[in-house]
Amino acid sequence: MTFRVVLEHDPETGDYSAVCPELPGCASAGETEEEARENIREAIELYLEPGDLELPENAKLVEVTVG
User: Fold this and answer.
1) What is the pTM of this model?
2) What pLDDT shows up at residue 48?
């Protein structure tokens, strides 16, 4: 799966920020562009990792594949 990532360089600190627009709140940073890219890749993986769910007794959990 491929996601778009916006990389921005901060001239004041020299660091790079990385934001994935398709995943709200998914952002990271790094001291170099390469580090920022690696960090956002990890952030995206963590963002997409399934978490534990508490379901009501009458609820049914199913999986759907896209792409």
Assistant:
1) 0.80
2) 95
